[in-house]
Input
Amino acid sequence: MAYPARFHNEFGYGMLRTRLIVGTLLALWGLGVLFLDRYFAPWYPISFTFSVAVTFALGYELQHLLPAEVRPRSWPLFGSMLLMVIMNWAGALEWPGSPLAWITGGLLISFLVMFLVEAWCYTVPGHVTMRLALSLFTVTYIGFLGSFLIQLRWYFPGGTHSTGPATLALLLAIFVPKFCDIGAYAAGRLFGKHRMTPLLSPKKTWEGAAGGVLLAALGAWLMVYGFADWFELDTAQQFPLRRNVVLGMPGWWATLLFGVAVGIAGMLGDLMESLIKRDLHQKDASANLPGFGGLLDVFDSILFSVPVTYGILQWVQ
Output
């Protein structure tokens, strides 16, 4: 099928097609993890393996974006990443206290260990403070923020222990910011005229941002009121956003506002990763994913939006 040259040039059809193909493959991979793992509740071994693999991959990409002389040391960094993932299973292992308390404790232990390692390996002055700061930044950015995504695996609103609400919560956390990405890209290509952040990301426009937020809100509504039934998640009476009234407003209206909030947070996450890459003179986190760059370029919006998703769902339950 032939497309007009204007469509190719202004809309970026080739790039959009690549993004859609790779994005669909990633989505199918994610759906397999989400739905197959439901049969292994509450241990979720597939989610654990997936979490470790993605966390390590993101940590590796960010580590190698940084200058070699201040790059975090590998074994304390990845040991800390593994510890952060393990702490998320505190509830499943029936450890006393809140899982978030264990996760915060894991972050503290990681910082102390990395501090001690730097002292043990110290030879000459010049880079220790910066390397230690970047090590803590990497673990916080990926390990701590990513923990909110893992914690949604045990989302049980109203005391129910059905896996349906947790699966829907994860779907929202992953796909709503991706809807925003796609909407922003398409609207920006078609209608974008006013640059939003000329220094951080010159191609982003206010028109694209509006399109992204609109598609994020619509995507959230479709997933809560349509996809949940298709997937037979049994959430009609259990998922908070499916109620007739949520925080004094109709449930469908609250769902749209949820999509707006998560979409905006995801957009900020994308911009913040652009800030990192711009400061380090890099275009992409890596070249591992055609059309996206690296895995960090895929998860940047999710890392920022998932604490918002978690917070809102905890608030309305």
